[in-house]
Amino acid sequence: MPILQPLESMERISRQALADDLDTVLERISREDIGLVITDEGKDDLVLCPASWFNLDYVDDFSCVINSALRYAMRSEDEESAAVVQYLRRHYQLFDEKTLSVAVADLERELNQPIVTLKQPQVWKELQELFRQRLDELRKESSEGEETHHG
């Protein structure tokens, strides 16, 4: 994510100028990685910036933490494990395809050949099924998006 300059020093563009030349302006902010302040008399100013400014740089780190917590929880099955399971159930829809794929594979391996005997295998089977369903949804959305884009 770029270091943002103060709003006071950002270039201004009127709403009308933006509307008149939208494609060119959007291409410019992406190409130059800049933000523009959209102004109009009597209305609040808005900032137009590239979508890349909102990309999460920590997605891979977050995925590693999620998958590590899952592995810990499966092997420990203690109070902290219960908290991990609760978190995963509550937030699994936020996980990306890679995180879910790794989690499903880890669960599969532990369910079939556990390093330590699982105390509550049903909990892990349910979590695996939840992750699989979400993974299927993401893959379906992804393939539909590609069909729409290429179709």
In short:
The chain has 151 residues and is mainly α. It has helices at 15-20, 22-32, 59-76, 79-91, 97-112, 121-150; strands at 11-14, 36-39, 46-48.
What does this structure look like?
The protein has 151 residues and is mostly helical. The chain has six helices and three strands; from the N terminus they run βααββαααα. The chain has helices spanning 15-20, 22-32, 59-76, 79-91, 97-112, 121-150, and strands spanning 11-14, 36-39, 46-48. Strands 1-2-3 form a three-stranded mixed sheet. Helix 3 packs parallel to helix 5 and helix 5 (97-112) packs antiparallel against helix 6 (121-150).
Contiguous uncertain segments of 5+ residues = none
Q: How many extended strands?
A: 3
Major β-sheet strand ordering: 1-2-3
Distance between the termini: 33 Å
Number of helices: 6
Q: Mean pLDDT score, rounded?
A: 88
Structural class: mainly alpha
Helix content bin = 55-70%
Biggest sheet record:
3 strands, mixed
Shape: elongated
Give short descriptive properties of this protein.
single chain; 151 residues; mainly alpha; 2 domains; 6 helices
Walk me through the topology.
Layout: E1 11-14, H1 15-20, H2 22-32, E2 36-39, E3 46-48, H3 59-76, H4 79-91, H5 97-112, H6 121-150
Parallel strand pairs: 1-2
Antiparallel strand pairs: 2-3
Helix pairs in contact: 3-4, 3-5, 5-6
